[in-house]
Design a protein that fits this description.
This protein is α/β, with parallel strands linked by helices. It is 42% helix and 12% strand.
Amino acid sequence: MAFTEQEIHKLNQQFKGIPPEEIISWAIQYAENPLVTTNFRPYEVAILHAVTDVAPKIPVVWCDTGYNTPNTYKHAEELIARLHLNVKLYVPKQTSSHRDAVMGIPGIDDPRHQLFTEQVKLEPFRRAMEEHKPDVWFTNLRQGQTALRDSLDILSLSRDGVLKVSPFYHYSDSQLDAYLKDRNLPNEHKYFDPTKVLENRECGLHT
């Protein structure tokens, strides 16, 4: 499905305040090849629950950097089993042990940091998108996370023209806490992204 920027702007105005499940149902009815991406970071359970409640068999693309915390891996396994997620796992072509030996985790001022990010996050993500070729991409982007994400909305277009749908875009942490509590869903806060270092730094997938 193809929308102009003007149409997306109008839809975003209409969707503000609409329950996430209604936004998801709207997108699913137009989608030919939807997917949802996740890294099992805090509050990811919200988008995974909401999307699979509408489309149980939707591909769930997980690009695992190989540097997640034990808590994150246990949380991921719990959600995969509980929500019956149709996970499509993508990992870097080089193991974390190999990379640790020759590079480690470069700081953001290290010239090798760009190569590190390419290896552990961007290349696996591009590989996933090329294989699945989605027309609708569900994400858990939210306003207030980064400057770039503040410029987006519930609906936005990726560089490749894929419609990104972020049904929880206007939700605060407290609203998401309530959403999870009402549905008895678990959360996990011990998460580590080796490419970001700082919490408000953009990861590179949405630029």
